[in-house]
Amino acid sequence: MTEPARPLSVRKQDTLRRLEEDVDLWVATASADGAPYLMPLSFLWDGSTLLLSTAAGNPTAKNLRANATAQLTLGHTRDVVHITATAEILQSGALAESEGDAFAAKAGFDPRGLKSPYPFFRLTPTRILAWREVDELSNRTLMDDGAWLV
After folding, report:
1. Could you tell me the pTM of the whole model?
2. pLDDT of 89 strictly over 80
3. CATH number of 8-148, picked from 2.40.260.10, 3.40.50.150, 2.60.120.230, 2.30.110.10
4. Confidence band, pLDDT 50/70/90 cuts, at residue 2
5. How far apart are CA 26 and CA 43, in angstroms?
C-alpha cells in the first residue's frame, strides 16, 4: 500500500533533506550535437546551488562546456527529485577553500589534489520536481524559473 500524497510543503522539506544528506545524484547532459550522457556524481548542496566535480576529459565535463543545461536526479523511481539546472564552470582558484573542504568531506574524495584536472561546476536549479506515486504527478513542481513555489 502506498502512502497518501504529500503536500507540497512536505515534499519541499523532503527534497531539501535529500539535497543535504544524499551524497550522489545522476547527472544527464548532452553534447553540442545532442548526444546524451548519464553519469552518477557526488555533490555538495550549499542551500541554493549544487557543486560537482568530474575529470576534465569526462563526457559530462565536455558536455557542460558545450551546453550548460543539465538534468539531475536524486532517489529512485518511486521517490524522485528531478532538477533542471544551469552549470557554471568554476575557474581555477574560484572555489573557496572551505567549500572545497566541505565537498571533499561529503564526497569522500578531494579532486583538488588529483594529478589530472578535475574542474568544479556550480549548478543552479531552475526547476525542481518531486513525486513518489501517480497521485503526486499532477502537483509535482516545487520550483519554477529558479523560484520556490512553496
Report:
1. 0.94
2. yes
3. 2.30.110.10
4. confident
5. 10
